[in-house]
Each structure stands twice: as structure tokens, then as C-alpha cells.
Design a protein that fits this description.
Blueprint lengths: L2 E2 L10 H13 L9 H20 L8 E4 L2 H13 L7 E5 L4 H12 L3 E5 L9 H7 L4 E5 L13 H10 L3 E5 L18 E5 L10 E5 L25 H35 L6 E3 L10 E6 L13 H10 L2 E2 L1 E2 L2 E3 L2 E3 L2 H5 L10 E5 L6 H24 L2
Parallel strand pairs: 1-11, 3-4, 3-5, 5-6, 6-7
Antiparallel strand pairs: 2-8, 7-8, 9-10, 10-15, 12-15, 13-14
């Protein structure tokens, strides 16, 4: 039995999207900047996708959608694009649970003299809006707060945070890669100035994303050239995958409410089925949570030195051998396992931050998948933990 439970990493392209992309590849492959009929057909396809994506989160002007190579580039364009408007370093605010696509450009700016405030989170990974108010300075130019945290599933109160930013006249950006297409987002209420999303998180094709830029917000381009995408992101657009992105957004918009409700039911069932497992502690906020997201830290009830060897990646490998795809929160760089920065920010120890696991659900996930996964995960942990404890 093969079960895929890593939908936060990537979703399988929908059959409708694949068919549509193939149609564009064979019939509308022109350069959308060209004036002849081949180019104009491609341009119509491109602008149709822009409208469909804008509708996903109530962006009134489709031209506010800037196509990128993915969510990472969209995040970079938001952070560095705003920063590029200033001749001298200013002040930025982010959270301590941001994706690396935010943390790395922020680190780059900090090395150039920008002042960065990183807001703390509670044990559930959630920001206190009062901390944001206290962090604002006279030279704060951007607040960037992730909407749905991919590792622990926690949703941030972006409505309240966005209103705080608006009250102080500060641009507000959110990384909505995990929430777009899964939850209702309205960039008009509260006002969101910049928003990042990615096609392959909503059953589109990998290699394309978008940044919403509210009309009137100026950003400096990162890629210079022919001036495509309103001179904010030069380069010939990847029309076929953008077309698939648009269709995926349109389908997500029509199915979002019923599908999110279904996934929440499966999510809660998996949490309930694992509640009696002594080797797992749920992470993230159970109330303010992505509808498809389940996450745990592996717990050591034996408190023995032998169990220190266990990591989340060890459990991921065991589950993979059983035909079930899940993921771990810790990262491996040059062969060395690093603890999850997100779990560390939430107050977990370094040992615990090596033991995070994540199971994320999607369109093809069934109740039977959940029940089978719960049984197998318990078997894996029951087999692994006593073995390590006995090894003492």
C-alpha cells in the first residue's frame, strides 16, 4: 500500500492541469511579447492565468500578479524588492518561524547594515500581536510574517498583524505558500501589500510562483532584462506552466471550502488516533492550524541515553520502507543533521528539535489512508523505541 502524506512539500499535478499544459505546449507556445498571432495567443493565455490567480485571493487588479519561478523567488522579490527602494539601511520585522526563503534574504540585508527584529513565538508557534506593536520603529519599512507555518502547521493572526502595519503606514508581506488555495484569503481585508504563493502547492506544475504587489507599492526588480511583468521580473514567461497555475487556482477556488472541511476531519482523526501513543507529542496550534497539517515531536518516555540516537529522519525512513511518505523538520547539510530552527524558536530543546515529523494530507488522502498510517506509525515507534531503550 502506497500512501503519500507530504502535500506541504509538493502536490501531484491535477490531471486537468496536465492536460491543459500539454494543450498549451502544442498549440500556444509563442512568446507572449511578440505581436504576431502566435505571440498574442500566448499573451491571452498568460493574462487569463493572471486573472484566475488574482481571483484566488480577491486581488482587484490582475496586473498586481507578478509571475516568478516559485515561492522562494516571490519571497526574495518581496523582501529585497522593498529594501531596494532605499539608499540607506532601514528596519525590518519578521517572525522567528519564517521559511528559509525569508530568513536568507533577511540575513543578506542584515550583513549590509539593515536592522532586523525577529519576533518570538509561544510554544504553539504563534506571534503575540503586542510584540509586533512594541517592535515597530520610526524607520520600519516592512513587516513580513508567514501565514501558515509549513513545519508545525500554525496559522499566524495576519488579520490583526496587517491592521497594525496599516495603522503605522508600514508595508505588510505574508508568505502564503501553504495557505493559498487551501484557505480563504482576502488581500483587501485586512490590507496585504505583498503576498507570495507557489503553483506546486495547489496541484500545479513545479517551477512557477507569483508575488502579489498591491497597486501603488513600488519594488526594485531582482532580474533585469526585457521588462516583462511590469518591469518587476524580466524574462520570457513560462506560459504553459503559468497556464496550469491559473487553472489550478481556479479549481482550488471552487473546491476550497468543501475540501478544506474534509481535510480538517481527516487531520483531526489522525491526531485522535495517535493521542494514545506515548512516543509522540503534537506540535503547533491545534485551533489555529492549516487544515491539512499534522505534526509531532518524537517523545522519549524512557529517558535513556540509548534513545538519544532517534531522529525524525529515522522515522521518515522507516515509514518510507512501509510505503508511506512523510517528512521530518530537521535539515541535513553536508551530512550533518541540524535541529529545526522552527522548533527551537518554539522552545523545544536541540534534541527535541531533531525529532520533528510532519504528515500533510491532500486531495487523494482517504480515511483508510489515515487509519493505515496511524497503525503503521505506531508499529514503527513501538519497534524502534524499545529497541533503542534495550540497547542501553
Amino acid at each position: 500500500m502506497q500512501i503519500y502524506l507530504d502535500y506541504s512539500a509538493s502536490t501531484p499535478p491535477r490531471s486537468e492541469v496536465i492536460a491543459y499544459v500539454n494543450k498549451i505546449l502544442t498549440g500556444e507556445w509563442g512568446n507572449p511579447s511578440s505581436l504576431h498571432q502566435w505571440g498574442q495567443r500566448a499573451a491571452i493565455t498568460l493574462e487569463t492565468a493572471r486573472v484566475e490567480i488574482a481571483s484566488l485571493f480577491n486581488a482587484e487588479n490582475p496586473e498586481s500578479i507578478i509571475f516568478t519561478s516559485g515561492g522562494t523567488e516571490a519571497d526574495n522579490l518581496a523582501i529585497l524588492g522593498v529594501a531596494g527602494q532605499y539608499d540607506t539601511p532601514q528596519h525590518l520585522i519578521i517572525s522567528s518561524v519564517e521559511h528559509p526563503a525569508i530568513r536568507e534574504p533577511i540575513r543578506h540585508l542584515e550583513a549590509q547594515g539593515w536592522e532586523i527584529t525577529t519576533l518570538p513565538v509561544n510554544r504553539q508557534g504563534r506571534i503575540n500581536p503586542l510584540d509586533l506593536k512594541a517592535a515597530i520603529q520610526s524607520n520600519t519599512v516592512l513587516i513580513s510574517i508567514i501565514h501558515g507555518q509549513s513545519e508545525v502547521g500554525t496559522l499566524q493572526p495576519i488579520e490583526e498583524l496587517g491592521k497594525i502595519a496599516q495603522a503605522h503606514g508600514i508595508f505588510f508581506h505574508t508568505d502564503a505558500v501553504q495557505t493559498a488555495g487551501r484557505m480563504t484569503i482576502d488581500v483587501q481585508q485586512p490590507p496585504i501589500d505583498l503576498l507570495s504563493l507557489s503553483a506546486h502547492k495547489i496541484y500545479g506544475i513545479q517551477g512557477v510562483g507569483a508575488l502579489y504587489v498591491r497597486p501603488g507599492v513600488e519594488i526594485a526588480p531582482l532580474v533585469l532584462g526585457g521588462g516583462q511583468e511590469g518591469k518587476k521580473r524580466s524574462g520570457t514567461q513560462a506560459v504553459p506552466v503559468i497556464a496550469g497555475f491559473g487553472l489550478a487556482a481556479k479549481l482550488a477556488s471552487t473546491e476550497m471550502i468543501t475540501e478544506s472541511s474534509r481535510l480538517m476531519g481527516l487531520r483531526n482523526r489522525l491526531f485522535d488516533l495517535m493521542a494514545d501513543c506515548p512516543y509522540l507529542l503534537a506540535t503547533g496550534d491545534r485551533l489555529y492550524r492549516l487544515p491539512h497539517h499534522v505534526s509531532f515531536v518524537i517523545h522519549d518516555p524512557f529517558q535513556t541515553s540509548a534513545t538519544e540516537k532517534i531522529t525524525g529522519k529515522m522515522v521518515v525512513r522507516q515509514m518510507n520502507l512501509a510505503g508511506i511518505a512523510i517528512s521530518a523538520g530537521s535539515a541535513c547539510h553536508s551530512g550533518k543533521l541540524s535541529p529545526s530552527s522552527v522548533l527551537l524558536a518554539m522552545g523545544y530543546s536541540e534534541k527535541e528539535a531533531l525529532r520533528g515529523i510532519r504528515l500533510t494530507l491532500g486531495r487523494e488522502t482517504t480515511r483508510e489512508d489515515i487509519d493505515w498510517t496511524a497503525m503503521v506509525l505506531k508499529q514503527v515507534l513501538n519497534r524502534l523505541m524499545p529497541k533503542l531503550a534495550v540497547a542501553k
